[in-house]
Structures are given as C-alpha cells and as structure tokens.
Amino acid sequence: MPASPKNPRVLIITPEVTYLPDRMGSLSQYLTAKAGGLADVSAALISSLFKQGADVHVALPDYRSIFKDRLAPFLKKEQRKILSVMPDDRVHLAEDRAFYYLNRVYSEYGGENTKLGLAFQREVINNIIPRVRPDLIHCNDWMTGLVPAMAREMGIPCLFTIHNIHTVKATLAHIEDRGIDAAYFWQYLYYERATRTYEEAWAHNPVDFLCSGVFAAHFVNTVSPRFLEEIVEGRYDFISKPLRDELTNKMKAACSTGILNAPDPSFNPRTDKELAVTYDDTDHHRGKRKNKRALQEKLGLANNPDAPLFFWPSRLDPIQKGCQLLADIFYHVISNYWHLQVQFVFVADGNYQQVFRNIVHHHHFQERVAVCDFSEHLEHLSYAAADFILMPSLFEPCGLPQMIAPIYGALPVAHDTGGIHDTIVHLNVEKGSGNGFLFKTYDASGLYWAISQAIEFHKLNDEIKQDHIARIMRQSLSEFNYANTAKKYMDLYEKMLERPLVG
Q1: Handedness of CA 187, 190, 196, 198 (dihedral sign)
Q2: Which of 104, 192, 267, 365 lies 20 to 30 Å from 79, alpha-carbon distance?
Q3: Alpha-carbon distance 55 to 47, whole Å?
Q4: Three-class SS string for 128-153?
Q5: What is the pLDDT of residues 157-180, one digit of tens each?
Q6: What is the pLDDT of residues 245-275, one digit of tens each?
C-alpha cells in the first residue's frame, strides 16, 4: 500500500544499527550490528521517530552470522537450524553472501568493504526501495553513497548524513558488474575527473562514494553544526578538496545543516544497571563516591574516593583522538599532582594502549593508572566513578562521551573542536555557567592547562562544587537526548517534503 499523504513513508538506510523498537517486528530488537557510534545513532533516531508516529522503515545488511549469535537464545530449538532471519514489515534486510559469514560490520580488508558496500546498495536499489516505495530516503555514510543519485533520478527527496569522512571509490564498470544499473543515474555521481559522457567515465574514472552522496542528495547534514563549518573553512588537510567543495556548494544553496547526535538512553545514572549504585542530581555526591570505590577496588587502584579520577572513554587513536598529547605530559601530570593521588582509567582499545601500559610499568603507577580493554560494563561504571573525562581530539564530527559524561556528573576536559564545541562550554564558577574545561590550541601544553583547570575545580569547597555538578547533570539530561535530535530530523524531513510528517 502506498503511504498516506498525511504520514509520508521514510526509509532509513544504514549499514549498522543497535536495538530497534520491538513493535517494528518480533525480531527487530535482536538485529544488532555495531561497529561504532553510527549504530547507536541510527537505532535511537529510528526509535524516536517511530515513537512519534512516523511511518519509518529501515534497511540494513543481512549479517546472518552476527544476527544468529544474538537470536540463538530466543529461537525455538527447531528454528536454530535456520541461519536466515526473515525481515518484518518495517525492517528490510539486504541479502547477499558477502554479509552472511562476517563476524563484524566491516571487513579488515579495504577491497572487501567496497564489495560489501556495492552488495548492500544493489539490494537497496533493486529490491528494498521498490518494495517500500518511500516518500523520503535517509542515507548514512559512504556505504549508501550511490543511493542519492538513484533517488534524484526517481524524484524521491533524499537526505545524506555524514557521520564519518571515510570513503571508497569504484568505476562504473565495477559498480555495474555487481548488479547496479549505474547507467540509469550516472550523471548524478561524483567522479575523480570531470566527465562528459557515460562511455568516457565507464572504465577509467572512479566514482567517489561519499562525494556522490553529498553531490546527489537533496539535503546533507553532518552530525554537528561546527564540524560542517570546519570542513567548509578548510580547517583539516586530511579532508579531500572534492568533499569540501561539494559541502560548500550545498551550504551556499542552503541545502546543508548540522544536527547533533545524542547519547543512547541507557546512559542514565538513575537507571543504569551496570553501576554499583544508581543516583541522580540530588544525591550524586554519595552515588559517585560509592561507584568510585567500586571501580578502584575492581581495577586495583588506591582506594580513595577523594582522589580526582580522569576517565579516557574513546579509542586510543593518535590520528583523531589526541592520546599522544596525553602521553607527552602523562608523567608530569601524575607527579605534579601526586599529593592529590590523581588517578587515570582507560577503557579503550587502540594503538596507543601499549604506550600507556609501558609508562605505567616503567614508573610503577599501578595504583594510580588502569589501562583496560573496552568493556561496556567498565565504560558505564567509569562514567559514574569519574570526576572528569578526557577528549583532546584533533577533530570530532560529533562525539558522544562529552555528552554522556556530564549526565553522570563527570566533567569533560576537551579540545574545542567539532561537536565538542557545540556541546561543551568552559566552566565559569563565578557566573554559574559552563559544563567542562576547553583548550583551544591543539598541543600538549593546552591539554595540561585544561587538566590543571579541572584540578582547581576539584579543590573547591564541596558545597560549591556539588551545586555546579548538580546543575550540569540536570541541564545535560534535558539537552542531550534523542527527543531533541529526532525533532530536528522531523523538522528537516518536513522541510524536504514540504508537508507535515505525521498527520
């Protein structure tokens, strides 16, 4: 049945997602495939739109191996032999053997990811879109970058969201060899070199998937307003000129915006089952002290609830996350604040994990520093235990830890960039404003200064300090949630459709 004019049908196309609303289908909440923040963002947006009454559908790859592991405990014995998961009315799985045996969303091999992206888009273009007949299509990242060109040819309004600046390239010959009729919409794709004819482009002029998504989409958004501005301003050398040019064109045409992501609702100290004790803004002092003791005992740190505790919540990636800045000053921070028993907890995988392990081992900091592999339990407990989190990122398309942490009463120490700029204001104790500590110059000295500002705040009179933390927790819970984010997407959908989304 076609969508009602009063409630247009929206198809959200995403390569990864976490829990979907159970009313979207009996198995929808078990179709979890996550590589990063896009999964949580997609799930939260879909859930919020669905709760608000939107006629929302979702397309994602049929990761049979991943889904089977999650479904096994819930299926009847005779069903466990079935590897395939049949999609429900609102959940549409793109089927291809390329996905069936993966145990992760993306392959470790670059060429394989191009193959996965083409298989996904082939099924979306050839089967899912004709079946759903959407009034609006919402694509996410490079793995959906060809779909906006098809949508433009069909006259379907299409939103393209950039969560990450990664892209892949393939020729029309390769794209068509994978079963996509690119000749139908070739003129809306973005090529490495200017091309006049389909034949000229076919074999030797690769298509850029991410730039194609931006070029062809009717509207584009990044996941924070500031990151969009930074790309257009040419702030980062690693962002390609074609992507910058296309986003600039979209901005000049008033067809771009930034919409902040929001944390998963499970990040809430009032209800978080991973905590030693739950708490809220009215009893956070008691709650955080008990959680700090629990974390210190679990990780073998010195047992001192008064010690300032810094938590590193992001992957230890020196290209984006700035962990090398902390490594440069790590010894000096711990030694200079030794009398306060300052502590650091890392719950993160990544290349720099061993660097910090080596520093801890060399200087015998085992009672002051814990370096742990990522674990959801430790992540949640660390937010509740920490006084501060560290996010000295070089760039941040959105970032979620700097929004999660204040909800738990942990204040961010962060570089003023991207989504961090849009969510964190430097704390002013006298004026009663702000929610963290920002440094503007991206170097180790800047980070050291911000850490020292956090330590000075920690030394304040308890009553003053706790009043600020309570204020920040209340404000953060009210501001950083998907009701706000979904409303902005709904408004954008309605603008693109030029009619209300829900009748």
Answers
A1: negative
A2: 104
A3: 11
A4: HHHHHCCCEEEEECHHHCCHHHHHHH
A5: 999 999 888 899 999 999 999 999
A6: 999 999 999 999 999 988 888 899 999 999 9
